Amino acid sequence: MPVYPPILRPGDTIGIVTLGSPLSSATINESIAVLRNMGFQVLVGKYVYNVNGYLAGTDEQRAEDLMAMFANPAVRMILPTRGGVGVAAILPYLDYGLISRNTKIISGYSDISVLMIALYQLSGLVTFSSLLLFDFRNSTPAYNFNQFFEATSTTIAPRVIRNPPNMPQNSKVPGNVTGPIVGGNLTSIMDTLGTPFEINTDGKILFLEETHEPTNKVFRMINHLKLAGKFTNCLGVVMGECTGCQIAYGKSYNDLIDEVIVPLGKPLMTNLASAHGIYKAAIPIGARVNLNTYNNTLTVLEPAVTL
User: Which domain holds residue 139?
Assistant: First the structure.
């Protein structure tokens, strides 16, 4: 059974962690100031500003920061500064039992996807494919904040996830299925295949998105997922954006979807505003959703947070 975290309220404490690659202190501090101006308290992890080449401190240090936030009763939400490489490396050092007993809202995307999947599969915790710390900027579109706070600070249900105007969601294969939604960044998910943290898609709706990869490389990863059986028993597929992805050999990302995903015959929605795109829907990983491609809707059926 999924475990839903407590709701986020004005004045709550948000714990800041860096779990993958480092981020400049100026960017971190600018976003922390935005959170404080919103009325939140902020607790900064011990290793948030660390820089160790392409990693923010050692694997153990980054895991320690995350576990300290889960163990702290004052912290209501955990917000990673960014993704970047290295998130998968902390997974063996986490105490999933402690996490299941001390649930918090945690949000992110990109390499944070593998953490979301692990927390759901090993702790039951519903997490959010939504904003990272560096998305808390004065220039962030209102849509992103509206989606984030509607998911984390209200118990509205059912909640239809709609793209912003002039960005249509497209249904490619008809169907009407209900189940937990899992997934995230394609490259990051690929990194965990063959490990104890491999994604389980059986009886689930699979969500995928990518950024800055040529179509032939995206094909390679999609085909790997196919060969690994990740489409075999999934209920349906939601394809997010492939932001900045380049046409390769005359084929686009949409061509790839039409030629590789559509023939799988699973109910399929495409072009969901997500993750690396300018506009970011708030997708509760592990929550029960309905994908209805007859009427082109993706609906979160229950509140993703508890009072």
Answer: 13-152
